[in-house]
Amino acid sequence: MKIFRYPKMFSSANAYGLGSCSEIDNGSLSPRTMAEAKAAAASNSHKEAERRRRKRINGHIATLKSLLPNVIKTDKASLLGEAVRRVRELNKAAAELTPTNHHHHHVLFPSETDELKVIPCEETGVIKATICCEDRPELVMELIEALKSVEAKVVRAEMSTMGGRTESVLWVRLSVGKESDVGLATLRRGLKSVMDKSTLLAGSVQGLPGSKRSRYYPN
Hints:
Elements: H1 12-15, H2 21-25, H3 31-67, H4 76-97, E1 114-120, E2 126-134, H5 139-148, E3 152-162, E4 165-174, H6 181-206, E5 214-217
Parallel strand pairs: 1-5
Antiparallel strand pairs: 1-2, 2-4, 3-4
Helix pairs in contact: 5-6
């Protein structure tokens, strides 16, 4: 009888220097192999975390791009710069419209003199219009029509009435294409006609046409 002897078989784990199967099963890897395995796991975890971080950043950049109007450059640096500029503009506009601001902390008291002031703010695009005249029922509707003539949007409004006199302070923003000097002049004319009409009607009621002296501030 012939006896065949087979060569000694080596495990694949042993061939790659990871130890025998029994060593792997028993968790008895060499310190060097364990360190390499931990380093590989840490590297994979870091890569996955970095991938998720980049995904979140790209998502926020896309949202920022959709919120900013009239963006020309779409790289990240330009978008962030435009966002900073817009936030500064909004903060300044909010400060100007805050009641506690030193420009608006006073309580409105209508004066005895008809007055009209239209003051634009070039940095924020907001126009502050102040009109003081005789009060009458149709005054508010006429003010609305004057604002519609230049497609102005009211950002904030304050109104005070006392003794038949009224003072209105309007912060408005003209629509796109109406921000020019022509649009501003049209707004002034519309508001002045409202004030003049109040003066005329008040004078006719009292029998003294034009008894109230009007003050018009062009700037």
